[in-house]
């Protein structure tokens, strides 16, 4: 039986209740989204279809914007781009639900705002996304949480915490006094064993990624485990993402976000969460299509590519792949 979570109105530091804009073409879904946002304490500012909102007068944007966009039509993508720009300027949080078929187009429209993209989500996933927004909004005036509230918040944030911890362990260096996940070059005064007496460091040859066929064989070997064991035992989307992008870089091939979600081997919404965390950690980077600004790809950051090349050389990837 589903528990009914009802919260008092959520207000900012000035005492004003936070608002939500709900945009969905399907009536039943729009009603669900309004009900869930209202239950979480938001005031419904606007609730209509995407077309009605796009053709209506320009109105204030809610602190939270819930959008269901199942088809990548030109009008829908234009509206998403507008919402992304307005959300980025106003500090609004966007939660966009879409389909795998429309994912690449939707992803390409969203680069300026704080956004969560959900792929074919269940209602519970939308509720969790609203909970994550509440955890991120600053200067809230909330009632004191009870024990049930605390347990629910712990469950909502547990997965995000695990992602952050695992990414932090992957990073070869952290910036002193700064955030985690930052690659750091040696300081100007650093001297290693290869430095000569004059203080100049000897130039070493840069390690290159192995041929993509070698990396693809490693990926195939990882995937074969699912034929003999429960795939959940080996779920490691971050590593699968890095391997796929390393192979693509070796092939000089661009990788769409949809393709990368498939390569991650986990539900698309989970993969998008990992990709977002890894972009924020500077492990990956978002690359715009020079011929179509509405499209974007994911690639390894140069420092990540160097780290992958060094790792694969260290473990003897070519020898492992030939076994």
How would you summarize what this structure contains?
The chain is α/β, with parallel strands linked by helices and 323 residues long. The protein is 46% helix and 15% strand.
Protein described:
With 323 residues, the chain is of the alpha/beta class. It has 2 domains: 133 residues, Rossmann fold (3-Layer(aba) Sandwich); 110 residues, Arc Repressor Mutant, subunit A, CATH 1.10.10. The protein has 12 helices and 10 strands. A 5-stranded parallel sheet has the order 3-2-4-5-6, with helices on both faces. The longest helix is centred in the middle third of the chain and has 24 residues. About 10% of the residues have low confidence.
Features:
2 domains, WH-like_DNA-bd_sf, 323 residues, Rossmann fold, Arc Repressor Mutant, subunit A, elongated, WH_DNA-bd_sf, alpha/beta, three-stranded antiparallel sheet, five-stranded parallel sheet, single chain
Taking all Cα atoms into account, the compactness measure Rg is 23 Å
* SSE-based structural type: alpha/beta
What's the arrangement of strands in the largest beta sheet? Answer: 3-2-4-5-6
CATH class membership of the largest domain: Alpha Beta
Set down the secondary structure blueprint.
Layout: E1 11-12, E2 19-23, H1 27-39, E3 43-48, H2 50-55, E4 64-68, H3 74-90, E5 93-98, H4 103-109, E6 114-119, H5 123-136, E7 140-141, H6 147-170, H7 212-224, H8 237-250, E8 255-256, H9 257-264, H10 268-280, E9 284-289, E10 292-300, H11 302-314, H12 317-321
